[in-house]
Write a structure and sequence with these properties.
By secondary structure, this protein is mainly alpha-helical. It has helices spanning about 5-20, 25-30, 35-45, 55-60, 65-75, 100-110, 115-120, 125-135; strands at about 50, 80-85, 90-95. A hairpin with a 7-residue loop joins β2 and β3 (about 90-95).
């Protein structure tokens, strides 16, 4: 089924906005003396919960050996720890340390700061945009 011209235009505009903001992650990563993948890993691990390393590999879409290197560096900085899963000792779980949880909170807060093109929209437009995006994400 062909997509509507409006749907294509909406996607193109959304994609363009996201691409214009792609420099934000490298800036945030540099501010915390992390690489972009290290920021992604910290963002993927919820405080107080463990995440299987396989889940991190799948979410990042890269080779397991690359994730191991990323996690090694985070672990060396005291931000994460690897433990064995209680149910299956072959599965390695990744958990945030208290220091890692604090850094993650700061990174997430920084990444959630809206860029000027969004922050500058009138309140009614922001409400409509949020409602539309919520529906699109369902």
């Amino acid at each position: 089924m062909p997509r509507s011209t409006r749907a294509c235009e909406a996607w193109e505009l959304l994609f363009d906005l996201l691409m214009r903001q792609r420099t934000r992650l490298p800036q945030v990563a540099a501010e915390f003396e992390l690489s972009e993948p290290q920021c992604h890993v910290l963002r993927l691990v919820e405080p107080g919960a463990g995440v299987p390393m396989r889940t991190i590999v799948d979410r990042l879409g890269c080779d397991a050996s690359n994730v191991t290197g990323i996690v090694d560096r985070l672990e060396a900085r005291g931000l994460v720890e690897r433990t064995a899963c209680r149910h299956d000792r072959r599965v390695r779980m990744l958990r945030l340390t208290p220091r890692g949880a604090q850094m993650r909170a700061r990174i997430v807060a920084k990444m959630h700061e809206p860029p000027e093109p969004i922050a500058g929209l009138p309140p009614d437009d922001l409400a409509a945009l949020c409602a539309i995006l919520r529906r699109a994400l369902r």
